[in-house]
Design brief:
alpha/beta; Rossmann fold; 3 domains; 7-stranded mixed beta sheet; 6-stranded mixed beta sheet; 24 strands; globular; Calcineurin-like_PHP; iron; hydrolase activity
């Protein structure tokens, strides 16, 4: 990280921490350079929009209690202070004072930047570790002359090259990555579990203002044997974590691990798959997974009751594994994969399947949603997958995902992969709990989608009064960045499928119809050659290069001007009081007609039908039709009209793939919320009921929302 980047990140943190009691370290090369560097640093800060109060050099017989008084007596957004205790006795006494008064840091009026030398920092880490844990971050300052060069002079118009004059820094999306709790209800175990995990909750609460979380990722092994009583503990912990961190359930993402499997239920089930064909069938057909899903029933019931009925939880497959989150203008796609479908014993390595068809389905959804940043969650490392798919799944992930988070091995590991396909950053979290006598840890992270970077801050359990502390061993060479490390994420070009899985199958059929000699040449040209000795003969090798080549012709035949004889004229005017009912039926018929004439038959999915329906809706309604999301988002799915239109010319539509359970009830609740933000006289719920599409015509009925509002229910 360059000095400019480091200072830009510090400035962004200071802006975010305004008004909160936050301690930051600014590290200078030596005590001799301390004051000169502090003055240059102060000049740089005062040249920014921040209001800075310089508290000067700290008197070494005063500590956090006096600092809090000084910050409350001065009106500013940022406070600056330096300290240079004389070794060795001065450092010892100063460290003891800081440790004793560390609780007064809660009373700071705003963020305090403590400028100290590298030697002082090391001494405080050794002699005042409890005080040091209160520091949200440590930044290494460049030399005074570098700081001065970055500070614009009063008589010049600073250009874009100066650190202080850049465009506003990108506010990062902050996350917590935890894994492997192995919670058990036995009394002795519970005491030790509470000791470790309570300390983690205390860390989250203390760090909430300085490092407010947006997302929490949990990558498996919440329980130890897949039993319901274990998940009572797990959900209690996650419920408290949500309260402490203020992260809502919709932004908690969880996948299962091998210890979330009830091995008694899975005793007689198939231990693995033996071919690519079996894998495609398993991940494409829900019935094939029905018995294996029963091994995870305890996990599913508990997490569904905590996080909601429509969550992926690693149990969704393909497009249904993906959830979309919009945070501060950035669109994130989170794919929750279950690598434990075939987990059953301690010899699982090489037997597990993630499913290339599963990853491919997620890829299409991520591209269609226009995600700025894509995250994959799984429990196991790629090396544990079956050799038939291991090579191809990892390389497909290089094309699709920016960040891969996992657990399982109880050992932190990070790596950055850059290839001609793209690449990703892989982060393996250590166990959050494996016994207080063992190493326990977690990662805090920052995602910057625009800057294409991920920054990791590791924490470890150490016991004592402040049980969780910054882990200086994970990135020992990143001391200048406060023992954090920033990974650059390769750029990616995700090509929208627009038609989802049905087009994928059409593309596969076309590729497989190519003569074998030409097929291999085409694969080489598109960089989709299979592993040595394997033929180019399945959907596994039909990548986006081929798919995009075939997409235009297929989409033309399915979408453009597709009308049945009974459908009448094109545009429906919004001045018609029944415009929404007419538009829903006409769009549904066009979508069904497109499916019927495509020749894709049973390969059509609910997502395909949704895309066709939305495309047809845009074609038949006069005026703006905005497709904001597809089925799995907190945003409205489709808006008709604009804010300038009168309510009687506007409509809100919710799309749903699932037709079981309380899906209509939950959709009506969603509609009520959306209609508050976008007042409209018309509203509808659309069900992509594939089971009914073959023999029944689209139909509309009138139902009521919880407040008595009339809502149209379209069954496609």
């Amino acid at each position: 990280m360059t000095p400019e980047d480091r200072l830009e990140e510090l400035q962004a943190r200071l802006q975010l921490a305004q008004g909160s009691a936050t301690l930051l370290f600014a590290i200078v090369e030596s005590d001799a350079a301390l004051e000169e560097t502090r003055r240059a640093f102060r000049s740089l800060l005062t040249s920014t929009p921040l209001d800075v109060a310089d508290l000067g050099a700290c008197e070494l017989h005063t500590g956090p209690g006096r600092w809090a008084e000084l910050t409350r007596s001065r009106t500013a957004e940022v406070y600056l202070l330096s300290a240079a205790p004389q070794a060795p006795f001065g450092v010892t006494a100063f460290a003891a004072l800081l440790n004793a008064e560390r609780e007064f840091l809660r009373q700071l009026a705003g963020p305090l930047v403590m400028v100290i030398s590298r030697a002082t920092e090391q001494a405080l880490r050794h002699r005042a570790p409890d005080f040091v844990t209160w520091a949200a971050q440590a930044y290494e300052l460049p030399r005074a002359e570098t700081l001065s060069a970055l500070t614009p002079r009063n008589d010049e118009d600073p250009g874009p090259a100066t650190g202080a004059s850049r465009a506003p820094a990108e506010t990062p999306i902050r996350f917590l990555h935890i894994s492997d709790f192995h919670l058990r209800p036995q009394r002795v175990k519970r005491y030790d579990q509470d000791r470790v995990l309570r300390g983690l909750l205390q860390l989250l609460e203390a760090d909430r203002e300085g490092f407010p979380l947006d997302l929490v990722f949990v990558t498996g092994d919440l329980g130890h044997g897949g039993k319901a009583e274990e998940y009572a503990l797990a959900t209690d912990f996650l419920r408290t974590l949500m309260a402490v961190s203020e992260v809502p359930p919709a932004r908690i993402f969880v996948v299962p691990g091998n210890h979330d499997v009830d091995r008694e239920v899975g005793r007689w089930l198939l231990r693995s798959l033996s071919s690519d064909e079996e894998a495609i069938r398993f991940f494409e057909e829900e019935e094939s997974r029905r018995f294996h899903a029963q091994k995870l029933e305890g996990y599913r019931k508990s997490l569904t009751s905590l996080l909601g009925p429509d969550r992926a939880l690693g149990l969704g497959v393909g497009a249904d594994a993906v959830e979309i989150v919009d945070i501060r203008g950035a669109r994130l796609a989170v794919a929750s994969f279950n690598s434990a479908w075939f987990a059953q014993a301690d010899d699982d390595q090489g037997r597990l399947w993630l499913g290339e068809a599963n990853v491919a389905g997620a890829e299409g959804r991520i591209a269609d949603e226009g995600a700025d940043f894509a995250i994959a969650l799984m429990h196991h490392p790629f090396d544990d997958l079956h050799e038939i798919e291991r090579w191809m799944v990892e390389r497909r992930c290089e094309r699709v995902f920016d960040l891969v988070l996992r657990g399982h091995l109880h050992q932190e590991r990070t790596r950055s992969i850059v290839s001609q396909r793209g690449g990703f950053v892989e982060v393996a979290a250590p166990a959050a709990y494996q016994g207080s006598q063992w190493a326990n840890g977690c990662f805090f992270g920052e995602i910057r989608p625009r800057a294409r970077s991920v920054t990791l801050r590791p924490y470890a359990y150490s016991g004592g009064a402040d049980p969780w502390v910054l882990d200086t061993k994970t990135f020992p060479d990143s001391r200048a960045d406060g023992y954090c490390h920033t990974f650059r994420v390769p750029e990616k070009k995700r090509l929208r499928t627009a038609m989802g899985k049905s087009l994928w199958r059409a593309a596969e059929a076309t590729v497989l119809a190519t003569p074998p000699a030409m097929r291999e040449a085409l694969a080489a040209q598109l960089d989709i050659l299979p592993p040595p000795g394997a033929p180019v003969a399945s959907a596994a090798q039909v990548t986006k290069g081929v798919h995009e080549t075939l997409l235009q012709a297929t989409a033309q035949s399915l979408l453009h001007d597709r009308r049945g004889p009974q459908e009448g004229p094109g545009m429906i005017l919004r001045s018609d009081p029944r415009f929404l009912e007419k538009a829903l039926l006409l769009a549904a018929r066009r979508a069904r007609s497109a499916v019927a004439t495509s020749g894709l038959g049973r390969t059509v999915t609910g997502h395909t039908l949704e895309h066709l329906f939305c495309s047809a809706l845009e074609a038949v309604v006069e005026g703006p039709v905005s497709v904001l999301s597809m089925s799995q988002s907190d945003d409205p799915d489709v808006l008709i009209g604009s804010e300038k239109d009168a309510p009687h010319q506007r409509a809100v539509i919710e799309l749903r793939l699932e037709v079981r359970g309380d899906v209509v009830k939950s959709s009506l609740t969603q509609l009520e919320r959306h209609l508050t933000a976008f007042p409209a006289a018309h509203a509808a719920v659309v069900l992509s009921d594939l089971a009914a599409t073959e023999n029944t015509a689209p139909s509309v009925e009138r139902i009521e929302s919880p407040t008595g509002r009339e809502v149209l229910l379209l069954r496609m």
